[in-house]
């Protein structure tokens, strides 16, 4: 160790000057340590950003930190954080440390880190001052909505206006008659009427061999058709009811055991003709007609079975003459027996009339013709009726080719359906023969016995001595007094003729003394018909006549 006084004095001087320097270096802030080592000015980093983000300082180079949480992160801040002011100097940090940087900070983070620049010289007082960069204005917090006043009560919802009623466009026949309202003459009925009607053909099955097949084709408007086929013949000509229909049954299905066996089918007319496809039997049946007079019956596979021909039936009671004691209600002229009588130019009675007389027990004969209304359905299809004593209605309706229901033709309206649907096609004359027995009442006006009713439709019994439990819904109240007969006006152009009435004693209304039912009705067939004129009595040999085999 050098003990020279001069060296000792120099050492003490050096030591006295160096200790404060090292102490000042050890106590300097960390941020300034990094800048000192990087030879960068202290203004290159904004300490406010570091403090706002909680940035830790170190003597080592800055380490890239993870990105802030996504907006939907559970740790997302509830209150919006306003970013700090942008410093005048370009930041040296490679990515922002604030969770919500502004555009300037985002652009700076994407840019490359600038090269190190020496500390700028201080500006003299003679140099003009640089314009200060304006800081982005802080977004004012959205004003809090004023407390809303209670909404006024909503007005009661008004019912929407009903849509305008659609006008039903007419469907005109070639002669200009609107078929949606109905045609009362054959020449106004149009081409569909020529195809509609009843046909007869021979059918064959392994169980029955050769047998009659009666086909009823019904026009339903604009070239569409429905049909029913009866193995054994037409109703009343080879086909009879199986049983008496129950009272009060509103509807019945096609496969009911009460009905005769029948098939249902449908089809559409084309310029080549009409083809009806039936859903039964298992191998199928197709009926084809081109002219509405003749036709052919095929199996489902197209094999021809037999020829068919149209039949025009006529009731054996049509034109029936009244007995000597009968009251002639209408014979084509006004004889003073009817109120509100309207007669057509053809001498036919229109709907809406009423008898002037009243009767208790009687046999009533009427002939009527329903209009051709292919577009109408159900109760809108040629509706009228006979209100006996203005209490009990026997329905008049175009029910041709339908399964009988409790409001169809010859039904005791909404009380009992007919046992068999004996309706002829529209524009055909049909007959009702009605025997009515009034109910019995005691001296106090209490009913002690129901009325009775028997109806022949086109000569066939369809209501056999039926007990009348009560009046029809719209009829007059039951009572011991006699009332007139009303011909119901339902707005459809039904026409009547040959109306007469004969008074009867109650004894003749017993079931055992009712008029016998003919075994087989005479039928008026078209010329050159290839079927027997008595189809209920088929020939022994099931062969077609020679003229049909040619």
From TrEMBL:
GO terms for molecular function: hydrolase activity. Keywords: Signal. Residues 1-30 form the signal peptide. Residues 63-73, 139-163 have a biased composition (Pro residues). InterPro entries: AL/BT2_dom, Formin_Homology. Coiled coil: none annotated. Residues 355-501 form the 3-keto-alpha-glucoside-1,2-lyase/3-keto-2-hydroxy-glucal hydratase domain. Residues 46-176 are annotated as: Disordered. Residues 118-136 have a biased composition (Basic and acidic residues). This is 3-keto-alpha-glucoside-1,2-lyase/3-keto-2-hydroxy-glucal hydratase domain-containing protein. It comes from Planctopirus ephydatiae.
